[in-house]
TrEMBL record:
InterPro entries: DUF4321 (IPR025470)
Keywords: Membrane, Transmembrane, Transmembrane helix
Upper taxonomic lineage: Bacteria, Bacillati, Bacillota, Negativicutes, Selenomonadales
Keyword Transmembrane helix annotated: yes
Protein name as catalogued: DUF4321 domain-containing protein
Regions that span the bilayer: 12-30, 68-87
Length: 90
């Protein structure tokens, strides 16, 4: 029964992040490969989705800098789709 077992949102986010990271790593490997030299630039082209510029908090003893940028490529998006499909099978 599918409804009786719930993995929760945390596991879903973990699957998506893992798929995106593995997809990004695979994209980097493909970009440096001679086999996929013809179409590799299209697969590893990044798309800027979210960009939060760095914010600096100076406490005079410690300085914190934090920022966030989300720039997926096509392979990492494909990795997220595969991770979603694997999550659905659990």
């Amino acid at each position: 029964m599918r409804g009786a077992k719930s993995n929760g949102y945390g596991m879903f986010i973990l699957f998506l992040l893992t798929g995106a990271v593995f997809g990004g790593i695979l994209g980097e490997v493909i970009s440096h490969s001679d086999i996929a030299a013809g179409f590799a630039p299209y697969l590893v082209k990044t798309f800027l989705v979210l960009d939060v510029p760095p914010v600096t908090i100076n406490l005079y003893v410690i300085r914190f800098m934090a920022g966030f940028a989300l720039q997926p490529n096509l392979i990492s998006i494909l990795g997220m789709v595969v991770a979603f499909l694997l999550y659905r099978r659990l």
